[in-house]
Amino acid sequence: MDKAGQEPLIPKHGGYRKLKSFQLAQLVYDVTVRFCDRFIDKRSRTHDQMVQAARSGVQNIAEGSMASGTSRKMELKLTNVARASLEELRLDYEDFLRHRTLILWERKDIRRQQLIDKRPTTADDVAAWTKEFHESGQHGQGGQSGQQQGLALSTSSTVSTRSTYPEIAANAALTLLAVVSALLDRQIAAQARTFENEGGFTERLYRHRKGQQGRS
Fold first, then answer.
1. Is 157 exposed, middle or buried (0-12, 13-18, 19+ CB in 10 A)?
2. Pick from 106, 154, 107, 112: nearest CA to 130
3. pTM of whole model > 0.85?
4. Half-sphere exposure of 70 (CA within 13 A, CB side)
5. Is residue 147 scored above 60 in pLDDT?
6. Is 106 in a helix, a strand, or coil?
7. Of 20, 42, 113, 166, whose CB has the highest number of CB atoms within 10 Å?
8. CB of 141 closer than 8 Å to CB of 111
9. For residues 214 and 170, what is the distance between their CA atoms, to the nearest angstrom?
């Protein structure tokens, strides 16, 4: 509401840099650029597709945030595009692992939580964790043993004796993708509720004009 108590015609919008979804999508983009430059032939179509899908996730979150001032519908549409782009990227990472007979870490794999607990904010943070984990020579699901390892392996019958660097790097990216995708799912649901309850620019313009008439 403005100082007169009336709903602003164009509400505050933008501010996407403060969104956790944007920050994580940007991190995924930076990580993907490094991953592709290291493990994917730069001349291949896959290299370009993965980088562009990661970039699309970042760009569409930002564009959706900026569009929200005049179009909640466009905001919702662009956020959905961002989510779809990151899903495409997730499949590319999974294909990378499958085609090289590397292991895809399961959803409850403790190694995923170990990375999340590190709260990486830069590609350097992720690279440092990947390097540290690889050099530690940890075995199985996060290098746990005894009862802890048994619990971690309860849903898996195949365990690698030593994770390769590409396997760790790809799974690290997939872990970050899972987090940002969950955030975007909640963001999309919230945007849909707002659009349903408040409408878009046309409805806001109607309420604005009605309010102006009421004061005249």
1. exposed
2. 112
3. no
4. 3
5. no
6. coil
7. 166
8. yes
9. 60
